UniProtKB/TrEMBL annotation:
GO annotation, biological process: tRNA queuosine(34) biosynthetic process
Pathway field: tRNA modification; tRNA-queuosine biosynthesis
Protein name per UniProt: NADPH-dependent 7-cyano-7-deazaguanine reductase
Highest taxon listed in the record's lineage: Bacteria
Disordered: annotated span: 1-30
GO molecular function: preQ1 synthase activity
InterPro entries the record matches: GTP-CH-I_C/QueF (IPR043133), NADPH_dep_7-cyano-7-deazaG_red (IPR050084), QueF (IPR029500), QueF_type1 (IPR016856)
Protein encoded by which gene: queF
The organism's taxonomic lineage, starting at the top: Bacteria, Pseudomonadati, Pseudomonadota, Alphaproteobacteria, Hyphomicrobiales
Length: 152
């Protein structure tokens, strides 16, 4: 893996990675280190495959983090999230894996991820993971995804 300080995707034409293992997450320096703020990424059309049936699964993913020294470069995050399209894994694995990969790369002050999965077999599965308690004084808005209600 090349140096994560040098973004390799930004401003480049790149092929879509075939799997999360092939994808690359890049980071860039935070221009406001020491400032308490929340950065949010929302992926309302996340897809992966069921590892048993190979049928597509769909989720609304919300990633909140409090940067320290690094920000995730957004194009690399988009490519990384899209790389799950042909990846077979359970909802819990996809959601927690994304959170842990970002935690490892960015070393943020705090991070949480909400995976709001659409029903499979009639049951929606929502998955939530965070690195610990949010920093005191942080403005932490609701993730804004209503619980699944079905019809009616």
């Amino acid at each position: 893996m090349s140096d994560p300080l040098t973004p390799t995707l930004l401003g480049q034409t790149v092929a879509q990675p075939g799997s999360p293992e092939e994808a690359r997450l890049d980071r860039v320096p935070n221009p406001h280190p020491g400032t308490l703020y929340l950065a949010r990424f929302t992926a309302p059309e996340f897809t992966s495959l069921c590892p048993v049936t190979a049928q597509p699964d769909f989720a609304h993913i919300v990633i909140d983090y409090v940067p320290d020294g690094w920000l995730v470069e957004s194009k690399s995050l988009k490519m990384y999230l899209t790389s799950f399209r042909n990846h077979g894994a359970f909802h819990e694995d996809c959601t927690v894996r994304i959170g842990k990969e970002l935690q490892s790369l960015l070393l943020p002050r705090w991070l949480r991820i909400g995976g709001y999965w659409y029903p499979r077999g009639g049951i929606p599965i929502d998955v939530f993971w965070q690195t610990g308690a949010p920093p005191e004084g942080l403005w932490l808005p609701d993730q804004g995804v209503p619980p699944y209600r079905g019809r009616g």
